[in-house]
Amino acid sequence: MLANKLIEKGDWIHYIHTDSEASSVGRRNRALDPLLQATRVGILEVVMAILNKYPEAADSFDENGRNILHISVEQKHRFIYDYLMNFVAYKDRMLADIDFRGNTILHLATCVGNPTRSPPGLSRNQLVVDDVDGQWNTDFHVEAKRGSFGVVNQMSWDVLWFKRVKHDSYPHLWHLRNLDGKAAEELFEENHAALREEAEKAAKHVSDNLIIVAILIGTINFAVLLALPGGFDQNTGIPMLLKSNRQEVQFFMVYIGLALFFAVLSLATLMLIQLSRFDTNDFHIAIPLKTIISCLTIIYSTGFSATAFAQGYILEGWKSHALS
User: Fold this and answer.
1) In terms of domain of life, where is this protein from (predicted)?
2) pLDDT at 131
């Protein structure tokens, strides 16, 4: 509501450019374009209000020759990007635009980090792009917590974002080189080399700890499976309580078996993480999927172990009742 009122009262003659030739001449001396600023800071409501009132404002460019779609990709504002791709009539032209440094929209998707979740103490320009020379700063993760799993999530998000933009962009832009002679994929690998190394260390550190937990849970359940409450018949080898309370013993064995199964499955998944090559594409699906599977299986194994523990108390009660 407030955005609509401000837009209606504002004088937009300084921001709307119907002449396609009105490019860089005098552009640096104009007032800051509200549409560009709203796109840069990620205010979707303002972007929608401006484009609904003045659709031709989508032709705006910043001082680096980047349109609002470029800026949304560069700043990783997903909701603004989705809105521009689905509801703006000029999206095909915006996708094909190239900035003053020869960067396509795919080049702009190679920046490191998500500015909306930047670490404390780092500004938006430090994290994503230096507006003076248009060069990306890839050192943000140095200030992040080392050893945490956040760098793995960040790497996965950056890979996913790059592939998303690549899917939407034109194929002839995929291998186009900028003024520095770099294609988008080459620039992505260069910008994310340090982050990928940090993500590999973090993933291995987390999997090392989870392997210890999985081995511990599996060992305990395997030992319990060989020493059921009540003991075994010396002649037949059948659990003693199986004769008097077969159903409760079967439940106990099922819980122990499931806990052992999920512990082994988690251990196998964690070993696959350890043996991964940790290429860039591995962070797209493989590493996140293996991590989710290993965490879920450990949770299930722990849950079934706790259930078996409770069932063991029930069996001990039956044992005491039988002895009495």
Assistant:
1) Eukaryota
2) 39
